[in-house]
Design goal:
There is one protein chain. By secondary structure, the chain is mainly alpha-helical. The protein has eleven helices and no strands. Helix 2 packs across helix 5 and helix 5 packs across helix 7.
Length: 171
């Protein structure tokens, strides 16, 4: 099955994306290697798979599929920061929540928090979701970019609540 997934991904076609996403929804423990290969394959398809991966996040609850789809999105290289950010305007609340979670799961990447901080003054849909995402991230990761942004003219009003709302980082 792993070989079949590799062959499917090798076609670099959007036609293989949905079957791979459907595979991610199965819950047999014996398929862990298959899931892993499907996640890697979907990640390697990047832009080809992006919209279908986003659609697969439209679930009112957490499922094995949503967890695995987030892993596939986190594995896309280069990480699709701008495309994910644009999904904060999606009308589907479940998609917006899941996209926030993708950013949270990718918080250890050095560019993630500075990227989000740079969008704190975007339009309301985006900035509100960026704030929620930053609040859900680890303070030891979010504080340095937030403090650095204090030097920007006109940013103090948006940064102050985020800085004051952060718990003290534990050491």
């Amino acid at each position: 099955t792993v070989y079949v997934i590799q062959v499917m991904v090798g076609f670099r076609s959007s036609l293989v994306v949905r079957p791979l996403i459907q595979l991610l929804g199965r819950s047999e423990a014996a398929l862990d290697k298959v899931y892993e290969q499907a996640i890697k394959g979907l990640s390697s398809l990047g832009n080809i798979a992006f919209n279908d991966l986003i659609d697969a996040l439209n679930s009112p609850q957490e499922t094995p599929t949503t967890q695995r789809v987030r892993l596939a999105l986190c594995g896309i290289s280069p990480f699709p920061y701008d495309k994910l950010l644009s999904k904060f305007k999606d009308s589907r609340g479940a998609v917006v929540r899941q996209v926030r979670q993708v950013f949270i799961e990718n918080q250890h990447a050095p560019q993630t928090t500075p990227f989000l901080v740079d969008h704190l003054l975007d339009d309301k849909d985006i900035s509100d979701n960026v704030k929620e995402t930053i609040k859900a991230m680890r303070p030891d990761i979010t504080m340095p970019p937030l403090v650095k942004a204090l030097s920007r003219s006109g940013w103090q009003d948006v940064l102050e609540p985020l800085l004051l709302g952060c718990p003290e980082p534990t050491t």
